[in-house]
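Cont'd.
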Amino acid sequence: MTVDAEIHSGLINLQTQYGDNNMRRILGILLIPAIAGCGWMIFFWAPSEVSMGIVQKIMYIHVPSVMVAYFSFFIAFISSVGYLWKRKEGFDIVACCTVEIGVIFCGIAIATGSIWARPTWNTYWSWDPRLTTALILFLIFVGYLLLRRFTTYGEQQARLSAVIAIVGCLDIPLIHMSVVWWRTLHQPSTILSTQKNVIDRPLAIMLWISVFTMALLFAYLLSMRIELEQKTRAYLKQIANIY
Amino acid sequence: MVSDIWTILAKDIKLDFRSIENYFSMLFFSIIILLIFAFALPADTHDHKTLAPGIFWVTFLLSGMLSLNKSFQMEKENGSMEALLVSPTSRGAIFLGKMAGNTVFIMIIQAMLIPLFSLLFINTAISHFGELLLLSFISTIGFTAIGTLLSGLTTDLRFKDILLPILLFPLLVPLLLASVKITQGILWSQGFQSELDWVKLLIGFDLIFLIISYLTFDFVMEI
């Protein structure tokens, strides 16, 4: 068999080995009405906020993105620790996929936050603690992705990037504390606030619905990305075996 | 353990003094950065009072990078890194020895930098020499703890010269903020008392990263 033919048959093998899985398909089918319904509810069901008006609706993207971003960095931290401890490749796959998705959502959160801040605070950017923390986190994990780019697939790549993920995540509380002391402008968190009646009931419900939808989207993206990563790695291994 | 650390530290210092041009190049690099700041900023000395702490610490970060870059680079030559790794010392001892070497190197540069900084920007800074040096020491511990880890991590990689600052600087944000604030307090003759919270944060940063780097260095240096 020629090398080309061998690679080709290997690819077909991969396709059957990692065929479409049903869980993901169900998730994908659920996601379409969820996103459509959420979009409809944001504009037609949820009442406008009194002082901010229509601008406030961007919060239904901003807040869930932040939550998803932090959640995925947290998963990345856990799986990086898991990788260094157990040395199973699965942990590394999860870590690299969650960081990628987390960076995207972190970017979305920063962008939507800036768009929201223009009419509300009258500036696109302010050195507010949570904004700054998000930006620094974004930079740390972009560094993580660059590190993955600059190393080739293998055990070393997994090891080094796990160390960076751990160091980066443990730095979050320190960064947050220091930027809080540095300057403060952001309104205190509303959705997780312990005070009562900071946020009206329909708005709160709407926010939670959008968080749920975003979580669903995150799960779907993650499962897609993990499958893609598995296929890529299996392919790389096959190529390495052939040559 | 302690004797291992000491051996590695002594070796690094000896090597540094044999190639004394390292010190000179780093010192002149720092001088040039200070000069660039002096040229780029307004001549008004009143402004210098608020800007000076930032200038001092940016110079610290940039010149500190040079020390980190050379720290593992000199081990790469003649395969001495492998020799170090197969020698019967723990990875932790290698880390602490290397870190101590970097700390000594940076502290010597800082001690020369403070008078220069005082000359160019704030004349009163020299009267706080001791406090600034102590602060430099506390910050340098945190800087070298995480810097040595990342420098070891990036030695074998492509584009390591650009990767190291990209990975390192975002992680150092708390350290930089704290150092700048405390320096402000010191320059306004209030010593460490005015910014005690920041001092605590800085010491916390040192301890956390000293421990994490010590523990994770094992994984970085596997072969």
